[in-house]
Amino acid sequence: SAGSVPTEYVVEGTVKAKVAAGTAAGIYSNSSINITSGVDEGTGDYKYNLTNNLARNLAEEYCSGTAMGYAACVRIKTAESSTSIMDIECMNETFGVVDAAHAMGCWGDLA
User: Fold this and answer.
1) What's the predicted TM-score (pTM) here?
2) Ordered DSSP codes for the chain
């Protein structure tokens, strides 16, 4: 019917964790899904706690993000990422770490 979506697309096709935040890990208003809090762990290093765990480590899931300002890219760090933690690093064009506003979304299955 009009406005309905088959269940397989909702379960398999939607983001399971998403965050958009500033340089001090301050989460922008209405810009997160399944995130309880964020911590600025140093230059370009941000950690976010998930409300509901994913079935696999976030470093093993498909994630896509963007870094804003002077940063060129953002990535999921493998060292501290887990099923309940999204660990993000922002880098400049020479891959040095930099503080930057950033956004990241991850797909997968909830635990």
Assistant:
1) 0.85
2) -TT---HHHHHHHS-SEEEEE-TT--EEEEEEESEEEEEEEETTEEEEEESS-BSS-GGGS-EEEEE-TT--EEEE-TTT--SSEEEEEEE-TTS-B----EEEEE-S-B-
Tell me the two tokens of residue 86.
């999204």
Give, for all 111 residues of the chain, the pLDDT tens digit.
Answer: 455 555 555 566 688 999 999 999 999 988 999 999 999 999 999 999 999 999 999 999 989 998 887 777 899 998 889 999 999 999 988 889 999 999 999 998 888
Q: What is the dihedral of CA 38, 78, 99, 31, to 10 degrees?
A: -40
Contact of 89 with 74, CB cutoff 8 Å? yes
